[in-house]
Amino acid sequence: MKKLNIKLPNGWRDISADNPNGPPTLLIKLLGDSRVLQISTAEFLSGKIPNPSLADLVGLSKNIGLKNKFGDLQSEESGNCSYGIFGCVQFSSNEFPHSSIWHLSDGKNFIFATFICSKAPDQRQVNDVKTILTSIKRKSL
Fold this sequence. Notes:
The protein has 141 residues and is α+β, with helices and mostly antiparallel strands. It is built from two helices and nine strands. A hairpin with a 5-residue loop joins β6 and β7 (98-105). It starts with a strand and ends with a strand.
């Protein structure tokens, strides 16, 4: 994650240090419920360059949600972002009214993110997640 620029809107904080063995974790600063954004990366090391399509990224996200029984499929989205391209799928269940699964790729490397909420987020929070993820950039060397 040290190779990425991630900008957080007001009301968000990085709590990754609280879980040093886990993925980078960003939290909306709210008391009493859980709305957590977790981000991890997979870097290309060798072999055939993956070069995923928008449909590939949506498919990866959908498969994770279905495999983990995140609930009913609510929406799918894909497009361009600062990192390259993204695919996102949103699910809903009684336990987690909002779960969105994201995959971003620059053609070689991947960013995987989940935004899982035990209480339904408001639209501003959903928009914040999209802004955070679609504005991630690789740091200049």
